[in-house]
Amino acid sequence: ESFPGHLRLGSSTSPLLLPPQFIVVAQIGDSVVLTCCVTDCESPSFSWRTQIDSPLSGMVTSEGTESTLTLSPVGFENEHSYLCTVTCGRRKLEKRIRVELYSFPRDPEIEMSGLLVNGNPVTVSCRVPNVYPFDHLEIELLNGETILMKKNFLEEMDRKSLETKSLEVTFTPTTEDTGKVLVCRAKLHTGEMESEHKQRQSTQTLYVNGKYMYPQLTVFPSESVKEGDTVIISCTCGNIPETWIILKKKAETGDTVLKSIDGAYTILKVQLEDAGVYECESKNEVGSQLRNLTLDVKGWPFVWGLSIYLSIYLSIHPSIHPSIYLFW
Prior knowledge:
The protein is an all-beta fold.
């Protein structure tokens, strides 16, 4: 006997699905509400079950000509085909809908093995965390418009679990790469149609540092000065990124770190004890280098001898110059 009305299935993500698209794709952790509706039946009776007769793991609510099965939060135990059966008098009708799950919660993560330096190989990795099903995952890594590597994860899954997948590529950057954008793009194909996919990507703008330059350590006016002179010891380095400069005075009893301003240390009146070895350490993320110089301070000679006194005699004769005035 034919059923007097029509039975329709739908979900909170795809309301009232019609054949042949009886698939609901949901992200793990979301809520899914499956809806079963019937027409031309005044007092229908609804029932839900999985196709493999496993527990529903959800809540059923029926009212009038509609019944819902709520799965919240949806997890691996809910990845089944669900059957909705409606009875109207002595007649029955049954329809099936399948719940397929995926996990793709975050953008890919770009990591580098070290600082980008012109001519030095570096390994870049692109990680996609907590993905499911990973056998539908595709990752590609691009430098600007150039694809460095592309990978499809086609290995068979032996169990349902969240996995972190990644690819690595080693390349040698040059200063011409500065300003280019490194792109890590991940696609997760979902549903029966392989062309349907969800996509996430992360980007990172490249800055390639030049080779490390040695610091320049200089002294003004020269490395050999006289006691009492003003001396300026300077350490400069044109490296990028930011370089840290540390000036020290070397000694057998221990080095003294000098309070320099922008790599310059000033001695207003140099003394004999200021003589010695001065060291400059220049360091940044690329590496560190040392430079040193020796400052020689010459003292003034001591003069031992007699003091000389001069006596001055001034004779004035008023009779000759009557208008002279004397001031002391």
